[in-house]
Amino acid sequence: MSSPMIEAFLIDEDNEDKVWSHGLAVAHVLHVLVGPHRIKRNRHERRASHLVVGLDRQGRCIAVPVEPTHEYGVWRPVTAWFCKIHEFSWLP
C-alpha cells in the first residue's frame, strides 16, 4: 500500500493547543512537511490513520499523527511530539 499524498496541514485551535501541550509550536509541525519525512500507517484503532515523522528547522525529529480532511492533500494533525527513539529510526 502506498503512502497518502500530504501537501499541507490544517491547523485549528484544538490541535494547536495539543501541539503546545507537548512543548511544540505550530511552526515545528508545519516544517515537518518541508524537509525529508516519512509517512507511516498509525497503529490500529488510533484516531489518526497515519503518522508523519520528519525534522523541524533545528533538526529535531517531530512525530505528527494526522487524519484526512475533505480536501485532497490536506490532512489535520491530531497532536505532535518530539520523536521517541524508535520513531527517529523511521526517518529517511
In short:
It contains three helices and six strands, in the order βααβββββα.
Describe the secondary-structure layout.
Blueprint: E1 8-9, H1 13-21, H2 26-31, E2 37-41, E3 50-55, E4 61-68, E5 74-77, E6 81-82, H3 85-88
Provide structural commentary:
Helix content is 21%, strand content 29%. It has 92 residues and is an alpha+beta fold. Strands 1, 2, 3, 4, 5 and 6 form a six-stranded mixed sheet that branches. The model has no long low-confidence stretch (mean pLDDT 93). The longest helix is centred in the first third of the chain and has 9 residues, at 13-21. The chain contains three helices and six strands; from the N terminus they run E-H-H-E-E-E-E-E-H.
- Oligomer state of the chains in this structure: single chain
**Structural class, from helix and strand content?**
alpha+beta
What's the end-to-end separation, in Å? 18 Å
How many beta-strand runs?
A: 6
- Beta content comes to 25-35%
Mean pLDDT: 93
